[in-house]
Amino acid sequence: MAEKVHPDFETVIILGAGALGSYYGSLLSRVIDVLLIGRAPHIEAINEHGLVVSGEIKATHKVQASTKLTSIPEKALLMVTTKAYDLEAAVRSVRHLLRSDTTVLVLQNGLGIEAIARSMVTQGEVVRGLASTGVELPAPGRIEVKLVRKTVFPATPTGKRLWRLFGACGLEVHLAEDMEAEVWRKLVMNCVINPLSALFRVPNNAIATDHLRAVREGVVEECLNVAEAEGVVLDPSIADEITKAAASYSNVSSMCQDILKGRRTEIDFLNGRVVELGRRHGIATPVNDTLAHLVRFMEGRKWT
Ligand code: KPL
Q: Which of 25, 29, 183, 210 has fewest C-beta within 10 Å?
């Protein structure tokens, strides 16, 4: 390590390097030393053949990779890219290694992500980022970039340092003045696209159909009511923005990938969380509740 030194960070460690984490790791390795921490088959394949990236970006990267994190060097950026439900356990497993100069960046979908990480971290700083890029992991050691979208950080001094680092390797980055509103905007989009694409097992653009307009609008309306009760006012035009965005996404959402692989999903951090907050505020959320129940029914099933 320590060949490429960036002024703000000396190393990037990606904890939970699946599809998205490997995507960021591969790009960041252009300008800074990167260590990927992930599951054995993926890590072994990377150590043997390099990380092979295809799709919108094509490259093979020699990136350091391991199944276990044993130390955190000075001025490290620790990016946690696990699924939302694995975040707590992932941070707990490394918290004894954190230093006061470690920056912990959490990039999961959903609400309450930063609070989970903060409750685990006693040293260093926690920052929330938002990722909308669509990446798949077709085989260990290989990722396919299906959709490239900007990464969002808060417009804080640390957010600006992240903006410099990510920008230096060609990633499009946006600094948000109102990060809470951005988190909600992304949440509403995920509450529409992820469960519908997962339930029908279709790419994101298929759910932009007119047949699902009423469902999409129902999800959005309930989310906006709950957001407002939480102190975040979003413009109702977001419903059309989401439909337009979905129509331009030919990738398969992360939730649809989870359902296809018979895995757990992030539904409790998305529509499930909106339902929970709605209950707390006395706001009805029947559309989100129904979608959450349907997705839970699909979790863990095997498809032939
Ligand atoms: O965040 C996503 C996800 O799949 O989780 C979107 C933006 C919907 C891209 O697929």
A: 210
pLDDT digits (tens, 9 = 90+) for 85-121: 999 999 999 999 999 999 999 999 999 999 999 999 9
Q: Which of 254, 260, 263 to mutate to test the pocket of ligand 1 (most atoms within 8 A of CB)?
A: 254
Q: Quickly tell me which residue has 């992500």 as its tokens.
A: 113
**Ligand 1 and 151: CB distance under 6 A:** no
Does residue 5 carry a pLDDT above 70? no
214 within domain boundaries: yes
* Same-domain status, 115 and 154: yes
Last residue of a domain, one of 147, 176, 205: 176
Query: Within this chain, do residues 267 and 192 fall inside the same structural domain, yes or no?
Result: yes
Q: CATH number for the domain including 115?
A: 3.40.50.720
Pick the catalytic residue from 83, 146, 186, 302: 186
- Whether the full predicted model's pTM is greater than 0.90, yes or no, is yes
Q: Is the CB of 108 under 6 A from ligand 1?
A: no
CB-ligand 1 contact for 11 (6 Å cutoff): no
Residue 201 lies in a domain: yes
- Ligand 1 midpoint to CA 3 (Å): 34
Q: Which atom of ligand 1 is nearest to the CA of 266?
A: 5
Q: What is the Å distance from ligand 1's center to 235 Cα?
A: 21
